[in-house]
Design goal:
four-stranded antiparallel β-sheet, single chain, 166 residues, six-stranded mixed β-sheet, mainly beta, 12 strands
Length: 166
């Protein structure tokens, strides 16, 4: 499992299309950690400087410069959850068309596996946010595009957010 960190300064409410280079989006289920477990869920956008990431990967270097820059993480509101099951999913529409859709059922590493792995080498603190990975459909952010994302459980929307790329 690949793990990287984003500093608090990466969290933003503004979706930028560029930050020194064009940015790419990845929608992800995101969880708030508290007292040993995940207590809330949101949909998040993990932004990436893909060109820089590819250069760093080729050299075997860490990805923080491509993943942890200011404004590299956006979140919907978090909503409390008691359980994480295979019905928990996300959907991302860009300009009204589904760009990404998927959920726990399709995850290579389920949220509990991710949590166990993280706790095996680091201490999580109450309030930490864990972004989990993305379904197929990632791509470049185009200025002016409207992003609408939501977390669902079955047919019920738990939380949603929208951003206009600038």
């Amino acid at each position: 499992m690949v793990v990287f960190l984003k500093p608090n300064s990466a969290i933003s409410e503004v979706l930028h299309a560029t930050h020194q280079e064009p940015l790419h989006y990845e929608a992800e289920l995101c969880f708030v950690y508290e007292k040993g477990r995940f207590i809330a869920v949101a949909v998040g956008l993990d932004l990436t400087k893909r060109e820089l990431q590819n250069k760093l990967k080729t050299k075997g270097l860490p990805w923080e410069r491509a993943k942890g820059f200011d404004g590299a993480a956006l979140f919907s509101d978090f909503v409390e959850i008691n359980t994480i099951d295979d019905e928990l999913s996300l959907e991302l529409k860009i300009d009204g068309k589904i760009a990404q859709a998927g959920g726990v059922e399709l995850m290579m590493y389920k949220p509990e596996v991710i949590l166990t792995q993280l706790k095996s080498f680091m201490s999580l603190e109450d309030g930490d946010i864990v972004m989990t990975g993305t379904p197929k459909g990632v791509g470049q952010i185009i200025e002016g595009a409207e992003f609408v994302a939501k977390v669902t459980r079955g047919d019920k929307t738990l939380t949603s957010a929208s951003w206009l790329a600038n």
